[in-house]
Amino acid sequence: MGATLLRKVWDAHTVRRLPTGQTQLFVGLHLIHEVTTPQAFDELRRQGWAVRFPNRTFGTADHIVPTRELGRPFRDVMAEQMMAALERNCRDFGVPLFGLDDERQGIVHVIGPELGLTQPGMTIACGDSHTSTHGAFGAVAFGIGTSQVRDVLASQCLAIEPLEVRRIRVSGTLQSGVFAKDVILEIIRRLGVQGGVGFAYEYAGDTIDRMSMDERMTICNMSIEGGARVGYVNPDETTFAYLEGRPFAPTAEAFERAKTWWRAMASDPDAAYDDEVAIDAGAIEPTVTWGLNPGQSLGVTGRLPEAHTFPADQRPGIAEALEFMGFAGGAPIAGTPIDVAFVGSCTNSRLSDLREAARIVRGRKVAPRVTALVVPGSHAVSRAAEREGLDTIFRDAGFEWRAAGCSMCLGMNPDKLQGRQLCASSSNRNFKGRQGSPTGRTLLMSPAMVAAAAIAGEVVDVRTLGDRS
Ligand code: SF4
Question: 286 preceded by cis ω (within 30°)?
Fold first, then answer.
């Protein structure tokens, strides 16, 4: 019987099994940012400890970055303190930092892959839930909390529970106007936001095989929204082609040797899985969330759920979500007016995402009462998009073109919803208060659907607009 990638990578990085049943796992790459590290570094100082492997640790600034005005000091005193602490900690402990004046700065889950730091067969940890993104490369990557950040800084190891593996086979051809974001929203809708607890999700099938690395990252990014701490795709020629020539990827002969090892880490054809699920890609519509978690979604041609048609135990949750959102059960989601359109976040802020949104926007105008912004995931994405003239397309349409950062994905920087504003967002979370206003409302969708909503001023089926490329 063969082994899954998860098992192979896990075994290769196991230091020992702990009496608790956990594994002490060596962490190959530790990515850090300003929010979850200050206390961890403080503890290292108190204990007189060094960072065990500064050459396996890389820092960037993303969550608190004001994407409109990058000048220092930041107006927000707390944000300035966090940024200054990250700079001081990286300097004192010898950790490379891609700061605001560095061309390599950006959202941690965008720059890791972009720089070639993220590679197949690695274990990767970061103090952010969406670290699962890096699994797109065949890495075992997971989010950790601040105390675990301290553990990894001090020891490069982590005590972690073993995971089972669920293979999710996605087969068939996606309809035009349907993207990786729609696929992962459909998976989470089908399996539930808790369905992946205790599992790593292995994404497979011919639909995934044909996807670009950007698309695979979108899929793996939202694994955690389905409860799976880890999500991955087996490495293949698409993975290797993406990595070749990246600044931190091996070169020449070392790259060829690495490829041999990376291939060997992929799941064996006869690997056994703890669970398997099949998804028909051709049946997926452009998808929109309507509620308070990413599993509460529907196809754009669908109607909102009516609580009374559900089993008794589900009714209160559905009723609460509808009430918070101000929606009437049974109404169509299409036609829902929006106030804000946000293209960005580690789920969908890469060059291909911006291109898809620009195809919709080109030659059109943002609806008069809509505030629309595009926030590239990194400096590099920003520069590449500007070279293609995407910034001009967005600006001409009435979008704001911002500097790289997490921006409106979460309320930790000046980009926040106001009051009950409703935001069409390409990000990954739609909880109450996620975008900075306790009463603000979020509809998750693909970047193309966000662009279409910005133009129409309401939720609209992107397939009815057509692109202008
Ligand atoms: S973009 Fe959003 S989900 Fe991604 S790292 Fe930033 S805050 Fe977290």
Answer: no
